[in-house]
Design goal:
231 residues; five-stranded mixed β-sheet; 8 helices; globular; binds S-adenosylmethionine
Length: 231
C-alpha cells in the first residue's frame, strides 16, 4: 500500500494556465506513466528530474513507490532503511518557475518522506536526519527557468545564477558525497542513448567531471550532516 494524499484539482486559475501553462497531471496518468519505468521507480538511487515540476506530481508518486519498496526490503532494519530513504529523496529533482509551486513541492515531498520515516523508524527516527532531508530537498527542488537553465527571482525573471544540481552519493557506510554541477553541463554531457530512452542525469565520466571545472563543488560527510557545509 502506498501513502495517499487525497484528491487534487488540476487547475488553480485561468490566469495561471494562460501565463504558465499550469495544468497539473492527474494521479491516474502519473501512475500510468510511472508504470512504464516501474523498476526504476523502485530503486532508491535511480534519478528523476521533473523539469516543470509544479507541486511535484511525478516526484511525489515516485517517492512513495521508492519508500514503499524500502519499507518492504528493510522491514527489520530501520538504520539501513534510513540511509536508503535519504538516497531515495536525494535522487529526485525538480525545477519550476513559480515560487509558490516550488515551496509546495518541497513541503509535499518532505511530508511524504517524514510520514514514512517516522512510522517506520519510530524511536530511532531523529531530527538530525530530518534536517538533512530538508536541506537535500531545498537543493534539489529549484526555483528556476527550465528553458534558460537559470534561477529566477520572485517574479519568475531570470537571475544571473545558473541552475545547479547536487549529486548525492552514499559512498561507504554512512559517508555521503555531494557534487554540484550546473544543469547546462549535465544536459551537455547527458547520455540519451540509453535503452529505455531516458538519459541519466549525472551521466558524466570521471574525466569529464574533473576536466575544465565541470563540477563546482564537492564534499564528503556523514549523511546526517550534509547541511553543515552550507549552501
Ligand atoms: C503543465 S504544468 C505541469 C506540472 C506538473 N509537472 C504536473 O505534471 O502536474 C507546467 C508547470 O511548468 C511550470 N513552468 C512553466 N514554464 C516554465 C519554465 N520555463 N521553467 C520551469 N517551469 C515552468 C509552471 O509553473 C507549471 O507548474
Amino acid at each position: 500500500m502506498t501513502v495517499s494524499e487525497g484528491d487534487k484539482t488540476q487547475i488553480k486559475s485561468k490566469e495561471r494556465v494562460a501565463e504558465r501553462g499550469e495544468v497539473f497531471t492527474a494521479e491516474r496518468e502519473v501512475n500510468a506513466m510511472c508504470d512504464l519505468v516501474a523498476n526504476e521507480c523502485l530503486r532508491p538511487d535511480s534519478r528523476f528530474l521533473e523539469p516543470a515540476c509544479g507541486d511535484g506530481n511525478f516526484l511525489a508518486v515516485i517517492l512513495k513507490r521508492k519508500l514503499t519498496e524500502l519499507r518492504r526490503k528493510y522491514k527489520k532494519s530501520p538504520r539501513d532503511y534510513e540511509k536508503q530513504a535519504i538516497v531515495a529523496i536525494g535522487s529526485l529533482y525538480g525545477v519550476d518557475i513559480m515560487n509558490d509551486n516550488v515551496i509546495a513541492c518541497r513541503e509535499r515531498l518532505y511530508k511524504i518522506w517524514d510520514k514514512e520515516y517516522t512510522s517506520h523508524c519510530k524511536a530511532e527516527a531523529s531530527d538530525e536526519t530530518r534536517e538533512a532531508v530538508k536541506f537535500i530537498i531545498s537543493r534539489n527542488i529549484i526555483n528556476g527557468n527550465a528553458l534558460t537553465l537559470m534561477c529566477v527571482d520572485a517574479e519568475g525573471k531570470d537571475t544571473s545564477a545558473p541552475i545547479v544540481f547536487s549529486e548525492w552519493t552514499l559512498i561507504s557506510g554512512t559517508q555521503m558525497q555531494r557534487s554540484d554541477y550546473t544543469m547546462s553541463d549535465l544536459l551537455l554531457y547527458n547520455d540519451t542513448s540509453a535503452e529505455n530512452g531516458m538519459g541519466n542525469l549525472f551521466a558524466l565520466t570521471e574525466e569529464q567531471k574533473e576536466e575544465g571545472g565541470v563540477f563546482l563543488r564537492r564534499y564528503i560527510t556523514h549523511y546526517k550532516k550534509v547541511q553543515d557545509y552550507g549552501e
